[in-house]
Specification:
Layout: E1 7-11, H1 15-27, E2 31-34, H2 41-48, E3 52-56, H3 64-72, E4 79-83, H4 88-96, E5 101-104, H5 109-129, E6 133-136, E7 139-142, E8 147-150, E9 153-156, H6 159-170, E10 176-177, H7 178-186, H8 194-209, E11 217-220, E12 224-227
Helix pairs in contact: 4-8, 6-8
Length: 231
């Protein structure tokens, strides 16, 4: 999906900030809009079917973390969370609930645009270019519907979960270093640290465990991870 014209929903209850973001993104060619009813955020987003969601943490009725988790149950659109909260725990919580990135207020408008463009590029680039399945140890990773399956069971993955599984399975049981995984997920972005990667791997672990055969991801302390399933 190209940047130009991509629909974006902004969930921000400060009207002035919301209008500033809409105006900024509109100048860059995006079709940005806000939500009108904060008591039914998830429903409005589902109806809009956006390519990306910008989600504030502090909202009326339900906080952004809860909204993010609800969105993740039905949408694969990338989620950029924004907040005045700058602690590592808040960022980890956002990623744990399914957010793809986190931006602390106040932020440089150009950084917001750069993150939006990067998320759109990465999120839709892999689905447009990857058409094959990856198979390892009975697991089947499908780019067509962004799922991983084992036997008769399958579970949907977010973009980061998919890219993590893809990097690990392509190594055919070999070690994938932490730096290599971070490069696969975030390319050359500045905002990446070990906690961010660990949270994303943990999310994938939980999805794999839900398939009923335990966790095939083996951590090698200080080095990286391997997908410990027979080829």
């Amino acid at each position: 999906m190209a940047d130009e014209g991509a629909p974006i929903v902004i969930v921000e209850d400060d009207g002035a900030i919301q209008n500033e973001m809409i105006a900024l993104l509109s100048r860059w060619g995006f079709r940005a809009r806000g939500v009108g009813d904060f008591s039914r955020v998830a429903e409005e987003i589902a109806q809009a079917a956006p390519a990306l969601v910008i989600l504030d943490v502090n909202l009326p009725y339900a906080d952004g973390f809860s909204v993010c988790a609800e969105l993740r149950r039905s949408s694969k659109a990338p989620i950029l969370m924004v907040s005045a909260r700058s602690s590592s725990m808040d960022q980890i919580m956002a990623l744990s609930q399914g957010a793809d990135d986190y931006l602390t207020k106040p932020f440089d408008p150009q950084v917001l645009v750069a993150k939006v463009r990067a998320l759109l590029r990465r999120s839709y680039e892999y689905s447009a270019t990857e058409s094959d399945e990856l198979r390892l140890g009975g697991y089947v990773l499908s780019a067509a519907d962004c799922t991983i399956g084992l036997g008769a069971s399958a579970v949907a993955l977010t973009r980061n979960e998919f890219l993590t599984a893809q990097a690990l399975m392509r190594a055919r049981g070999g070690l994938v270093g932490r730096e290599a995984l971070m490069q696969a997920l975030w390319r050359d972005e500045v905002f990446v640290d070990d906690n961010t990667l660990s949270v994303n791997v943990s999310r994938l672990r939980r999805k794999l465990e839900s398939l009923g055969a335990g966790d095939p991801i083996e951590a090698v302390k200080g080095a990286g991870y391997r997908f410990a399933a027979d080829a």
